[in-house]
Design goal:
61% helix; 135 residues; 8 helices
């Protein structure tokens, strides 16, 4: 008689099972980096993007698009800045969630907003308003 197939193991997180981990010989740090982990109680990147779009009066589809016009670039950079500040997720994850952008683009956006927020009161107020709406 043919042996019964073993039941599918429960996924650990993001679809990884113990069998897959053992089969592929992944190291613990590879698994940890594959799991989506945000700060406890933090808003999601998507919720940050939606609130940013509401405050700036732009559409989410435009924020995530390849468009590089000023009316879209500023809200996009603000959403990246807040995503890093509020979620603590990796640059790679934030870049991918922002229209599939590279991590270096996300880093640039964060640094630019971080720098400008100190001297641009209108920008500082917009960021504060978004933070308030996310709380």
């Amino acid at each position: 008689p043919k042996p019964e197939p073993s039941p599918e193991p429960e996924p650990i997180k993001d679809g990884w099972s113990e069998q897959q981990i053992e089969k592929h010989g992944y190291h613990w740090f590879s698994i940890v980096s594959a799991i989506k982990v945000a700060k406890s109680g933090a808003p999601t990147i998507k919720s940050i993007q939606r609130v940013t779009c509401d405050v700036y009066g732009v559409k989410l589809i435009d924020l995530l698009s390849a468009r590089r016009t000023g009316d879209i670039m500023r809200p996009r950079m603000v959403s990246v800045y807040l995503a890093k500040e509020l979620t603590g997720l990796s640059w790679i994850r934030i870049g991918k969630a922002t229209g599939g952008r590279d991590h270096s683009t996300a880093i640039h956006a964060h640094r630019k907003i971080q720098r400008e927020i100190k001297s641009n009161e209108k920008l500082a107020n917009a960021v504060a308003l978004i933070r308030e709406r996310l709380a």
